[in-house]
Amino acid sequence: MKPQHFRAAPGLLLLALFLLAALFGPALAPFDPLATDMLARLQPPGATHWFGTDALGRDLFSRVLVATRLDLGMAAGAVVLSLLAGSAIGAWCGFVGGRLDRWTGRLVDVLMAFPLFVVAMALVAAWGNSVANIVYATALINLPFYIRLARSEVGVRRNAGYVLAARLGGATAPRLLFGVLLPHVLPMLAVQGSINLGWALLNGAGLSFIGLGVRPPTAEWGVLVSEGAPYIITGQWWLAFFPGLALFAAVGCFTLLGDALRDLLDPRGAAEAARP
Q: What number is the average pLDDT over the span 178-187?
């Protein structure tokens, strides 16, 4: 087995667990994540409540489990939107070239000079803190990454031999772009998308943590960390630890998968890995 396959194994295992939790979390949760029980408030992790209970007596394991679907859904939605729009814009600019390509490159550089999380905060504050607005804001601040990558990759390949051969064969511009060039660019876009999934998770959880994202009592990792943070100094460490651990594991999962995909799809990296 190749080294990149070993590196991908932990990420794939974590991904399988998170997908299982996202798909079947509400059915697998041992307690209602919104049900309160003041007689069982702030109980430490134990046999009945694996992750303990919060200040309202809600089972923390059930809330962390159910939150997986919402967090992964927001991150995946944002990445898909930004990948589709950004790759289309960047690929067209790289294919056309000229003034449009130059001005697009400068605009992307300007956009990436701003603190992207602050931009997301401003957008959500202006639009309102709903799940849809969090997805749209995260997608917008991710656009420059895909525009830059697609523009660069298409610009390098637009005069390649196979593209010139297709052009001589009578292929139209849309056919050249979407049928000839984009299939060679998609692997790198997939790597970028996998890595950006982790960043999108952090962005959504961060917005919820500071009060601009999902609102309580909805179960969401950022909300759970925010609710549990004040209790750390009083000894109830589990309230922030377990949702934070879930977020850490999810971000690490997508980072590992992105690194493994990059090693697998990069010819130079694959050649170096194959050397004795």
A: 82
